[in-house]
Amino acid sequence: MTTDDRAPSPAAKVGERILRVAGRAVAAVIWQGPRSDARWPYPRGRRLTRWLTVLFVVYGLIVAGAAAGAVFNDDARMVGGLAFLMLLPFVAALWLVHRRPLDAWRLMAAWVLVLPFLVGPPVPTVPVLEVWEWLFVVPVVLLAAWAGPAGVSLAVGGLTVALLGVLTLVSPWPVEASYLWGSVLVVAVVVAVGMAFGARWDARVALEAERIRVAEAQAERGALAERARIAREMHDVVAHHMSMIAVRCETAPYRLGDLPENARAELAEVAAAAREALGDLQNLLGVLRSSNADGAERAPQPGTDQLETLLSDARAAGADVSWEIDPGGPVPAPLGLTVYRIVQQGLANAAQHAAGAPVRVRVARSADVLVVVVENDAGTGPDVPGGGQGLRGMRERVEVHGGTLHAEQVDAGFRLRAELSIGGRP
User: Fold this and answer.
1) Residue 308 belongs to what domain range?
2) Helix (H, G, I), strand (E, B) or coil at 362
3) Where are its TM segments located (predicted)?
4) Residue 54 lies in a domain
5) What is the pLDDT of residue 316?
6) Are residues 31 and 170 in the same domain?
7) pLDDT bracket for residue 282 (50, 70, 90)
8) In this predicted structure, what is the pLDDT of residue 385?
9) 386 to each of 352, 375, 383, 406, how far by Cα in Å?
10) Number of folded domains in the chain?
């Protein structure tokens, strides 16, 4: 086996991975594209953000004015007014730094390289960066190191040091190279402080996220406990009575002796309805006791296809029902469930408040609107007062689909009309 055929050593793999990560970090600092480069969110329009912008700009203008007046205001370097204009890109970097720190660093780095070729040499010989330049560089490097992950922060420090080295070599005037190590130390300290701030920021964000997660978990546990309590109460009260109704109706022909055939049929229908209601109640209790609400949403739900069965069952139970069902094509499942519940509740309301009255049901499509009408005449039986929850529940269902619900007295009867948008909320 030749040397070329051997697999790379673990050390070589680690080195290759480090180089790959470093390359991505350096590329992110040099050019990251249009996406945000700041660790912290930037809430546009907030008063704090506006004051930060003003603070950074005022600081930059003060430094630029002081440098133009005290450092450049001589014939050897540049007239102070023109020098002030030359320093405005640094002010622009400070204006940008708390929103897009890496863009601010790029602007600062480019102008640090360009500026020595536009102004005269300092007297005497100075380090690679003058004191006034550090007043611009330090806050920009600090926030750029703070803004991103550790790899990007280290890349900011490394590229800043490389910038100082390049500037030492290409500067148009003599630079005191012995001060370069001090400059590197300053950059290292600034980057370390920025990374420490970033780590603290991440810790606070993670702590807040964990606090929210714990609060949501506690709320979910409380909701599950409340649902379980409701399920127990419904089982203890409602299910017991429904079972007793079904049992008494089923055993009445044997307990009461000879009964007319129509009475036996009536009791059998009541028993069947009670058993069906008991089954629905058991399903509801299972949903209340379950911690997975999605399971209930995935269970088959009735729709417009089951309307004929619903109305036929109501007619078989003795209701005087007539209907016209023409949805005009397939109906989305959520909308179909709403139509089914509206018709179901309309039949229940008619049986409760207008017993014995003829009931007419119509479902038809008009353009992009599905119209559901349930109306009844005056009843011959007593009006049983209700709690008013049925209409409220139907109205909530209709509003989900961007529709309207009208419930009104018509002559001596009652009309329920719902208009549902087939395409959803407009």
Assistant:
1) 302-421
2) strand
3) 51-72, 78-97, 104-123, 179-199
4) yes
5) 80
6) yes
7) low
8) 58
9) 8, 18, 9, 18
10) 2
